[in-house]
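Late entry, written up from scratch paper. The run itself happened at the end of the previous shift, but nothing got recorded in the book at the time, so transcribing now.
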Amino acid sequence: MILTAAVGASTILSGCTTSADVKRLDRAAEAIGRQVAGANIPDFPSYCSDPMPTVEPKLDEPVWGTQRRWEITRDNENKRVDWCADFYGRVQKGARSGQGINDATR
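Output as recorded:
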């Protein structure tokens, strides 16, 4: 990489280059820079890895009461899963488009 930059710099400084060569060198340097930098993917939110809470029947509680609490817990779990999928969908989209990954999560 350093050798490529040195050769490119010496070619440019020597004046034996065309604008097409300069553009090609710039594209190559940009591609190498992206490969070296890698992806700065944010940490997986702990919110996304929490287990689904359990719903335990309470003594003297009607069956429909336990069922209703379970339905609320399930709805909250579905909302959490949807949020996590959306979050990492934006991260993935940002990485593929060349946009900053951290910018995609805002």
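The helical segments are 2-14, 19-37, 46-49, 63-97, 101-104.
(Scratch paper discarded after transcription.)
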